[in-house]
Amino acid sequence: MHALLQLEREYRAARRDPGFRAELSRWLGTYAGRPTPLYRADRLGEAIGARVYLKREDLCHTGAHKINNALGQALLTTRMQKRRVIAETGAGQHGVATATACALFGLECVVYMGTEDMRRQSLNVDRMRLLGATVVPVSSGTMTLKDATSEAMRDWAASVRDTHYIVGSVVGPHPFPMMVRDFQSVIGLEARRQMLKSEGRLPDCAIACVGGGSNAMGLFGPFVRDPVRLVGVEAAGEGIDTGRHCATLEEGSPGVLHGSLSLLLQDEDGQVLPTHSISAGLDYPGVGPEHAYLKETGRAEYVSVRDEDALEAVALLARTEGIIPALESAHAIAYLAPLCKSLRPHPTVLVGLSGRGDKDMETVSAWLQSRGSR
Amino acid sequence: MTRLARRLREARASGRAALVCYLTAGDPSLTETADLVAAMADCGADAVELGVPFSDPLADGPTIQRSSQRALASGASLSGILELVHRIRERADVPLVLMTYHNPVLAYGRARFAQEARAAGVDATIQTDLPPEEARDWLSLSHDAGLATVFLVAPTSPPDRIAAAGRASTGFVYCVSRMGVTGASKEIAPEAADLIGRARAVAGCPVCVGFGVSTPEHVRTLAAAADGVVVGSALVAIVEQEPTPQARLAALRRTTSALAAATRA
Description:
Oligomer: heterodimer
Radius of gyration of chain A: 19 Å
Strand content of chain A: 15-25%
Strand content of chain B: 15-25%
Shape of chain B: globular
Largest interface: A-B, 28 and 31 residues
Largest sheet of chain B: 8 strands, parallel, barrel
Distance between the termini of chain A: 54 Å
Distance between the termini of chain B: 26 Å
Number of helices of chain A: 16
Strand order of the largest sheet of chain A: 1-2-12-7-8-11
Structural class of chain A: alpha/beta
Order of helices and strands of chain B: HEHEHHEHHEHEHEHEHEHH
Number of helices of chain B: 12
């Protein structure tokens, strides 16, 4: 608790410090490849009857939006004069981003990852190791993101004096949800500016996938006061009614996990339920508390997409636009068609394309083969 | 004075630290937990901490994590554990402290939990992931129900947070002997004594120490400084390793007696 209070003080001071902001923005520009393009995807748009803009976070260095937060928190780590960094990772994108930032700033890096995720995202395990990070397999519980997060927190309880924990999403105890949201808000700030420049108006709707919810929070934040519909897409896994999903905002109830009160997939005794998604980055039984707030106030709405539809969306985007999205981001693409039915004719929709799909090629290839054989 | 405070003071008055023994309720079954608790009370445990199993025990090391999994697999829930406390109360007067994570309490209903825990015979509760800053409601519910509260402090806790934990705790202040999660350590970190001293200086209630305390030598080291010493993982490991109910009972009796003998500094 002391460490969290200290972190909040340090972060608030850094946020006010023009030197810190300038340095972060220099790294984001010269190293991470910001601003990322806002791309009008006309062939995709034609397929679904909308004007679709993709915010191309998949073009960030390391292949996903996670680098925005990893650089911010790594810089904060050096400011706090800590030498060691730990992180949890699901899909491996946050782990790779953190390992990258640590290599860049010369910090020791340990990443906790569920053994099930290490299997399905093995490319990212190799990348983290090449970048000099130690990847610690976590075989407790469901062997996925939730358990990796718990294990990272246990490490931090012992190591907090010289270690910073770079939480990868808008989850965990305060100030993490606020801090990660702030570091990711660059997505929405850029997109808003780019949208106004190319269309002269704001989109009718902004849509993004939600696991913990960092890319969605980063995209939504700067639009919260605008007349723009905000839609978060969770993973319905094999279908909500099968129980094998992680649609926390649709199906969860209030609960405390990993230090914050939010919605949670739990049983009547308050035990956290096992979850499933084909996408490791969405496979988490909790969700950022600010998303729960946006849902409760009605400012954002949350829907879910099944594994099968996310896979179809990977193929759709690949064939219409030549872009292979991450399975996580594909959930947002998959909901475009149903979404457009509920909007005015020829709507303008902004999609957060949070990451690229190289890491998912094994999963996608297996699906293509099984589809071909059917 | 409550049963818990009385036992802690009596121990101190007789020149020793109180021995607090932890077990996860429902590991391997609620029925067996009742027997094990009665045996520990019989062998010199001054108080017993009953752990409420949680699917995601963030503050626990591998031994208690596995124990929580076994307890959940055996079907232990908060309502079952309160029934267990009723049954223990029929045979033992030992002070009982429920140690739980916040979420099972939230799911049960906080007011209902406070009332029913007290009615069942629970003396105090510890909610590992509920810091004093977030506990205002819980403090008044506990006060109304007559349940004592216990908050944790760590070697990194600065004076103001130790003071806050001291103000919020009515049972005892729980000093975490070293940075990290529960589980046996080779030796007691030197920072433990310093923390106990700092807590004693500000707390209006007894001060106990735990986390990493596993052997009679550890207990002896801490007995002079603290009002109570908590042993957890070392006892849970016995439950895990011994193959039969009889063997578990016998080994737990032996170990509890040895630990109790070490409380006289």
